[in-house]
Amino acid sequence: MLLPHFESLLLRIVRVSVPSYRVRGQQAQFECDYELGGDRLYSVKWYRDNEEFYRYMPKYDPPQHAYKIDGVKVDLSKSNDRRVVLHQVTLKSSGLYRCEVSAEAPSFESAAGEGRMEVTDKNLLVEYPLIQHSHGLLSAALGLRVPTGRTMQVRCTARVAPAWREGSEAVVGNSQLADSKEAMLLAILFS
What we know:
This is Ig-like domain-containing protein. Pfam families: V-set. Residues 4-120 form the Ig-like domain. The chain is an all-beta fold. The protein folds into 2 domains: 12-120, Immunoglobulin-like, CATH 2.60.40.10; 122-189, no CATH class. The chain has strands spanning 12-17, 21-23, 28-35, 41-48, 51-56, 64-66, 83-86, 95-103, 110-120, 125-127, 131-132, 138-139, 142-144, 151-158, 163-166, 169-172, 181-189. Strands 2-9-8-4-5-6 form a 6-stranded mixed sheet, with no helix packed on it. The N and C termini lie far apart (68 Å).
Protein backbone atom coordinates (compact mmCIF):
# COMPACT_ATOMS: atom_id res chain seq x y z
CA MET A 1 0.00 0.00 0.00
CA LEU A 2 1.39 3.41 -0.96
CA LEU A 3 0.86 6.28 1.42
CA PRO A 4 0.66 9.81 0.08
CA HIS A 5 3.83 11.81 0.65
CA PHE A 6 3.31 15.27 2.11
CA GLU A 7 6.16 17.71 1.77
CA SER A 8 6.28 20.12 4.65
CA LEU A 9 9.94 20.96 4.53
CA LEU A 10 9.06 24.60 3.99
CA LEU A 11 7.81 25.14 7.55
CA ARG A 12 10.75 26.84 9.21
CA ILE A 13 11.71 29.45 11.74
CA VAL A 14 13.25 32.44 9.97
CA ARG A 15 14.25 34.38 13.09
CA VAL A 16 13.56 34.43 16.81
CA SER A 17 14.26 37.71 18.56
CA VAL A 18 14.60 37.73 22.36
CA PRO A 19 16.21 40.73 24.09
CA SER A 20 19.42 39.67 25.83
CA TYR A 21 18.94 42.03 28.78
CA ARG A 22 16.10 43.99 30.33
CA VAL A 23 15.92 46.11 33.47
CA ARG A 24 13.35 45.14 36.11
CA GLY A 25 10.03 46.89 35.41
CA GLN A 26 10.62 47.29 31.66
CA GLN A 27 8.62 45.73 28.85
CA ALA A 28 10.11 42.85 26.83
CA GLN A 29 9.09 42.03 23.26
CA PHE A 30 9.78 38.64 21.69
CA GLU A 31 9.37 37.97 17.97
CA CYS A 32 9.03 34.69 16.12
CA ASP A 33 9.23 35.05 12.35
CA TYR A 34 8.34 31.87 10.48
CA GLU A 35 7.41 30.59 7.03
CA LEU A 36 4.65 28.01 6.67
CA GLY A 37 5.29 27.15 3.04
CA GLY A 38 2.22 25.25 1.88
CA ASP A 39 1.03 24.40 5.40
CA ARG A 40 -1.63 26.07 7.52
CA LEU A 41 -0.85 27.31 11.01
CA TYR A 42 -2.05 25.14 13.88
CA SER A 43 -0.35 26.90 16.79
CA VAL A 44 2.46 29.13 17.99
CA LYS A 45 3.59 28.43 21.56
CA TRP A 46 6.09 30.26 23.76
CA TYR A 47 7.97 28.66 26.65
CA ARG A 48 10.22 29.98 29.38
CA ASP A 49 12.61 27.29 30.63
CA ASN A 50 10.38 24.61 29.02
CA GLU A 51 7.18 25.86 30.70
CA GLU A 52 4.48 27.12 28.32
CA PHE A 53 3.25 30.64 29.06
CA TYR A 54 1.57 31.74 25.80
CA ARG A 55 -0.15 30.12 22.86
CA TYR A 56 -1.78 31.36 19.70
CA MET A 57 -4.23 29.04 17.91
CA PRO A 58 -6.07 30.69 14.99
CA LYS A 59 -9.01 28.23 15.10
CA TYR A 60 -9.91 29.26 18.67
CA ASP A 61 -11.91 32.32 19.67
CA PRO A 62 -10.08 34.17 21.05
CA PRO A 63 -6.95 32.74 19.43
CA GLN A 64 -4.64 33.83 22.29
CA HIS A 65 -4.19 32.31 25.72
CA ALA A 66 -1.67 33.18 28.44
CA TYR A 67 -0.77 30.89 31.33
CA LYS A 68 0.16 32.19 34.76
CA ILE A 69 3.86 31.74 35.42
CA ASP A 70 5.84 33.56 38.09
CA GLY A 71 7.71 36.47 36.46
CA VAL A 72 5.78 36.33 33.15
CA LYS A 73 2.93 38.81 32.52
CA VAL A 74 1.77 38.68 28.89
CA ASP A 75 0.17 41.79 27.40
CA LEU A 76 -2.48 40.10 25.22
CA SER A 77 -3.48 43.39 23.55
CA LYS A 78 0.03 43.68 22.03
CA SER A 79 0.65 39.96 21.37
CA ASN A 80 -0.23 37.84 18.35
CA ASP A 81 1.08 34.85 16.38
CA ARG A 82 4.43 36.52 15.63
CA ARG A 83 4.99 38.70 18.69
CA VAL A 84 4.65 38.34 22.46
CA VAL A 85 4.97 41.30 24.79
CA LEU A 86 5.70 40.96 28.50
CA HIS A 87 5.10 43.95 30.73
CA GLN A 88 6.91 44.78 33.95
CA VAL A 89 9.53 42.04 33.86
CA THR A 90 11.02 40.94 37.18
CA LEU A 91 14.24 39.18 38.12
CA LYS A 92 12.22 35.95 37.88
CA SER A 93 11.53 36.71 34.19
CA SER A 94 15.11 35.69 33.32
CA GLY A 95 15.42 32.46 31.39
CA LEU A 96 15.56 30.63 28.08
CA TYR A 97 12.61 31.57 25.85
CA ARG A 98 11.53 29.26 23.03
CA CYS A 99 9.03 29.77 20.20
CA GLU A 100 7.49 26.62 18.70
CA VAL A 101 5.42 26.77 15.50
CA SER A 102 3.23 23.82 14.47
CA ALA A 103 1.36 23.16 11.22
CA GLU A 104 -2.11 21.71 10.70
CA ALA A 105 -2.80 18.22 9.38
CA PRO A 106 -1.72 16.39 7.38
CA SER A 107 1.92 17.31 8.01
CA PHE A 108 1.85 18.28 11.72
CA GLU A 109 5.36 19.65 11.18
CA SER A 110 6.90 21.82 13.86
CA ALA A 111 9.92 24.07 14.16
CA ALA A 112 11.40 25.98 17.09
CA GLY A 113 13.90 28.71 17.92
CA GLU A 114 15.08 30.20 21.21
CA GLY A 115 16.94 32.99 22.96
CA ARG A 116 18.02 33.84 26.50
CA MET A 117 16.93 36.95 28.41
CA GLU A 118 18.46 38.15 31.68
CA VAL A 119 16.72 40.74 33.85
CA THR A 120 18.84 43.06 35.96
CA ASP A 121 18.07 45.50 38.75
CA LYS A 122 19.92 48.82 38.57
CA ASN A 123 19.44 49.30 42.33
CA LEU A 124 21.75 46.34 42.97
CA LEU A 125 24.63 47.70 40.85
CA VAL A 126 27.50 49.89 42.06
CA GLU A 127 29.44 51.39 39.16
CA TYR A 128 33.10 52.34 39.48
CA PRO A 129 35.10 54.51 37.05
CA LEU A 130 37.00 52.89 34.16
CA ILE A 131 40.74 52.41 34.69
CA GLN A 132 43.01 53.24 31.73
CA HIS A 133 46.27 51.27 32.02
CA SER A 134 49.56 52.56 30.59
CA HIS A 135 49.65 49.67 28.07
CA GLY A 136 46.28 50.75 26.63
CA LEU A 137 43.88 48.25 28.20
CA LEU A 138 40.74 49.38 29.98
CA SER A 139 39.55 47.71 33.18
CA ALA A 140 36.05 48.06 34.54
CA ALA A 141 34.74 47.15 37.97
CA LEU A 142 31.12 46.67 38.85
CA GLY A 143 29.92 46.11 42.38
CA LEU A 144 26.80 44.22 43.40
CA ARG A 145 24.63 44.77 46.45
CA VAL A 146 23.16 41.39 47.36
CA PRO A 147 21.09 40.81 50.49
CA THR A 148 22.53 38.20 52.85
CA GLY A 149 21.14 34.72 52.25
CA ARG A 150 20.07 35.40 48.64
CA THR A 151 21.14 33.54 45.49
CA MET A 152 22.50 35.53 42.58
CA GLN A 153 23.24 34.73 38.93
CA VAL A 154 26.18 36.50 37.30
CA ARG A 155 27.26 36.75 33.65
CA CYS A 156 30.72 38.12 32.89
CA THR A 157 31.54 39.35 29.38
CA ALA A 158 35.05 40.38 28.31
CA ARG A 159 36.02 42.14 25.08
CA VAL A 160 39.63 41.87 23.98
CA ALA A 161 41.70 43.56 21.31
CA PRO A 162 44.41 41.69 19.39
CA ALA A 163 47.76 41.57 21.20
CA TRP A 164 51.21 40.45 20.06
CA ARG A 165 54.82 40.72 21.17
CA GLU A 166 57.44 43.06 19.78
CA GLY A 167 60.72 41.89 21.23
CA SER A 168 60.11 41.47 24.95
CA GLU A 169 57.24 44.00 25.11
CA ALA A 170 53.55 43.19 24.65
CA VAL A 171 51.80 45.41 22.13
CA VAL A 172 48.04 45.98 22.20
CA GLY A 173 46.37 46.55 18.85
CA ASN A 174 44.20 49.59 18.33
CA SER A 175 41.87 47.85 15.89
CA GLN A 176 38.21 47.12 16.50
CA LEU A 177 37.41 44.85 19.42
CA ALA A 178 37.09 41.16 18.70
CA ASP A 179 33.85 39.28 19.31
CA SER A 180 32.87 39.00 22.95
CA LYS A 181 33.77 35.83 24.77
CA GLU A 182 31.31 34.95 27.50
CA ALA A 183 31.73 32.98 30.68
CA MET A 184 28.99 32.45 33.19
CA LEU A 185 29.15 31.79 36.89
CA LEU A 186 25.86 30.03 37.48
CA ALA A 187 25.13 30.88 41.09
CA ILE A 188 26.73 32.21 44.23
CA LEU A 189 25.09 31.58 47.57
CA PHE A 190 25.72 34.18 50.24
CA SER A 191 25.06 33.03 53.77
